[in-house]
Amino acid sequence: TVSSDPFADALFLTNQVQSGEGNTQSPGSESLANAIVQIVINEPDVSIHKGVVASTQGGSVGTVGGLTFDTVGGAGFTGTLVGESNAALIGDLNLDATTDVDAGDLVRFALVAVNSGRSDAYDFKIQDTLVGSYVNNYADKAAFMAATNFKALRGDGTLLTEGADYTLTWNAGTKTFEVEMTDNYTAGNLAGDTKPGGVSRGYQSGIDAAVTNGSNGVVILYDLTVDTDAQASSTVTNTAVLTNYAGDEGAFDHTAEDKSDTASIVIDSPGFTKVLTSTSVTPAQDPNNAALNQAVIGETVTYTFTIAVGEGTTAGATVVDTMDAGLAFVGVQSVTYSAGVSSANTIGTGAAPTNVTVGSTGSGTGNLLTFDFGNLTNTDTNNATDETITIVYSAVVVNTNSVPASPGNQAGTQLNNSAELGWSWVNDPDDALLPNPEGTSSITSSAANVT
Q1: pTM of the model as a whole
Q2: pLDDT tens for residues 165-176?
Q3: pLDDT by residue (tens digit) across 363-422?
Q4: Is 142 helix (H, G, I), strand (E, B) or coil?
Q5: CA distance linking residue 247 with residue 249, whole number of Å
Q6: What residues contact residue 284 under an 8 Å CB cut-off, 6+ apart?
Q7: Cα(387)–Cα(340) distance, integer angstroms
Q8: Is the N-terminal amide bond of 437 cis, ω within 30° of 0?
Q9: pLDDT in tens, 287-344
Q10: Percent over 70 (pLDDT), the chain
């Protein structure tokens, strides 16, 4: 009797016999004969792949690996899953920064399992843990399935029923769900396959042909909502794990080391601009000082910088604004936060604004500004509108005409500036092992020069 212990698919069990014969006329010699019989063992061989197939920002990926996926909230897919190579194409799908995904957006994942072996797979179990950058506070299985539009389908698109075709469990403590296929499936069986497994075999050894009707594949779809904890520019990764499958019901697990695959998204980054808004002397006051970017000694120059705050969290946000030595800070005129936007440190107004450090560079005085926002949070998840922080401040053209400021503020001198928005991130804010930033990024913007 062939054992149900794990064994590699399509290898041989071998039985060998040897006989020997001697005779009295040739003592010490023996005539030998050998015979060998080999049996090809049919075993399951299941792989797991995970990819991102749709989002509210990017829509559906369309057709990949022979399957055409619906958008977020849709029924599933059309087409038939054929072969592990097609499943691997789906598993390669991730969302990069160009998709503009941020808090409140929905992301649809596909977990694809394919049995390429010559035997049905039994006791098939797959797990997935929802990381903290996604909404994951579901009280029970029903709440999880409803909120995520959870679906399990055969490789041909047939929708499976929880409780009959598979069992779903949800662990509210670990934020983990597990799917176990019921070992009762025969609808996709081909000639020679009469056993009711969980996932059908992927190769028919009797006719030496691969299975192409999708019966050897399972596709699990669910939609996750990006949480406000998700940090701008972070890469959010979660992992599907194939924890068990066997060659017979109740037999030993074939995954001595669990198989897994990951899928990731990159959270959108903030935007940043700085512009020269006005100068204090108008053409009516001085016809020779008509241009916006012209100024004289003692004239004030007004700048505006705007942060487009992504939905969710922008951690450790600062703006470092450097002006040429011929300009000096006067005061913050206004600070405007869009509805839903807040910062850990509120920026003040006036000549000594709170959470703003005024310093100097080189020979300048008061030409270096550091705005310390701390964490920025945007709870407005309406993608149709941008939420911003806008700060207007003024600087004065100083009377400098000596070394080391040479040539000083002479006629025609170009006074420029550069402001940099910087922030940091951790890839999973709920991971206690990652208290420090895993990455930093910045955007630089310069207003027009003042002559």
Answers
A1: 0.87
A2: 999 999 999 999
A3: 788 999 999 999 999 999 888 889 999 999 999 999 876 545 456 788 888 899 999 999
A4: helix
A5: 7
A6: none
A7: 8
A8: no
A9: 777 677 888 899 999 999 999 999 999 999 999 999 998 999 999 999 999 999 999 9
A10: 95
Distance (Å) of CA 289 to CA 295, 299, 401: 7, 11, 20
The answer to whether 69 and 86 are in contact (CB under 8 A) is no
Residues 6 or more apart whose CB falls under 8 angstroms from that of 366 comprise: 328, 329, 358, 359, 360
The helix/strand count (H/E) of the chain reads as 2, 27
Q: CA-CA distance, 448 to 379, in Å (whole number)?
A: 33
Q: How many residues does the chain have?
A: 451
138-156 mean pLDDT = 97
End-to-end Cα separation, the chain, in angstroms? 93
Integer angstrom CA distances of residue 44 from 3, 116, 137, 203, 230: 14, 7, 36, 9, 39
Interior angle at CA 244, CA 238 and CA 250, nearest 5: 155
Cβ proximity of 333 and 393 under 8 Å: yes
Report residue 66 as tokens: 């022979």
Kindly report the backbone phi and psi dihedral angles of residue 281, in degrees, each rounded to the nearest multiple of 5, phi listed first. Answer: -90, 125
Element holding 361 (H helix, E strand): none
- Rounded CA-CA distance 398/450 in Å is 13
**What DSSP letter does each residue of 294-348 carry, written as one string?**
---TT-EEEEEEEEEEPSEEEEEEEEEEEE-TTEEEEEEEEEEE-TTEEESS---
CA–CA gap between residue 98 and residue 55 (Å, rounded): 12
Specify the residue for token string 């009516």: 284
Write out the two tokens for 300. Answer: 């004030």
What is the distance between the alpha carbons of residues 315 and 330, in angstroms, rounded to a whole number?
Answer: 28
* Residue of 28, 203, 45, 175 lying closest to 115 (CA atoms): 45
Dump pLDDT digits (tens) for 17-55. Answer: 999 988 888 777 888 999 999 998 889 999 999 999 999
Question: Cβ contacts of residue 201 below 8 Å, gap of 6+?
Answer: 42, 44, 115, 117, 118, 119, 120, 121, 193, 211, 216
Rounded to the nearest 5°, which phi and psi values hold at 304?
Answer: -130, 125
Note the pLDDT tens digit of each residue in 174-184: 999 999 999 99
Q: Is the peptide bond before 435 cis (omega within 30 degrees of 0)?
A: no
Would you say 383 and 336 are in contact if contact means Cβ atoms under 8 Å apart? no
- CA dist 303 and 278 (Å) reads 7
